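Per-record layout

source: Pseudoflavonifractor intestinihominis
name: GntR family transcriptional regulator
length: 354
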Amino acid sequence: MAFKYLQLAAQLQAEIARGTFPDKLPTEQELTQIYSVSRQTVRQALDKLVELGLIEKRQGSGSRVLDRGRSGGSDRIAVVTSYLNDYIFPTVLQDIQAVLSRKNYSTLLYSTQNKVSNERDILQGLLHQPVGGLIVEGSKTALPNPNLDLYEKLDLAGIPVVFIHGSYGALPGAVCVSDDNFGGGYQLARHLIARGHTKIAGIFKSDDIQGHQRYLGYLAAMRDAGLPLPDDRVLWYTTEERRYLLDYGHNDLLKHFTQFYLKDCTAVICYNDEIADRLIRMLLSTGHKIPADTAVVSFDNSYYSDLCPVRITSLAHEAHRLGGMAAELLLERMAGRQVQSQSITWRLVRKESG
């Protein structure tokens, strides 16, 4: 996996911040066993920690944790994301680092796995390992969050935060850079309606705010077109259900959707390309023709959209915009200037699926 070493580097950073390794890291061989990764992945992760100034590698004596790993840090920016190996994040990270490196900032990477418990551990660590600023992809942003007290402490400590993709409703003053997800849902539904579809189903993620915004845009387009609102044609799924579907290959969720939700619908809007890809493969396996029987459209225009047996019509992100903009806004906040949240428009890329 292309960015697996970044995942390991983020895990080791979190352990250093918590004081798990107060003086030295385990040996390379021990790390391969603890984290079930290759020796090459361990070496790349350790090189990343050296680059960040968190450890020092000495021939024959292993990797020593530097004091800087636990204190100081005004020249470092923490980047907290849900998944370091997510198909979107590597590009976002590269764009963030490109902006920050020009200003001589290094980046500390953390992954929450979209769990509020992991988010809490990371934020607590950052309060004891101060950084100059923080870029955060919040965990389960559509749900009540128990970590707002820590965001308040970060604010009191003078550590500015910029959210990406979505922020928490209970932090009304939060600065966020996100895609126009309402507009995207509206655009996809209007595209399908213009192609003659009047019964359109949907699959959306329930615990992240992006899913709610995309769903609302889709419903608004149906309403504005004078079409019935398809309450019983929308399937919601959670982070945990995503893991069972995509990581473990359990297709019960999509089987349930095709049996009970799809019914007489001729089109589906999916939360993203990875869900659309799995749905299309399942429909094809049951004899459906795409798009003749069922049109499928989605968000992200990722490599999934081209590797799918029927290439997916999907909304594209504006190249190199979100990560770079988030980094620029954070630098402005760190300089004491007022900034506002930003929303980025989508571009429809028409392919064969609908």
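summary: Residues 209-224 form the longest helix (16 residues). The mean pLDDT is 90.
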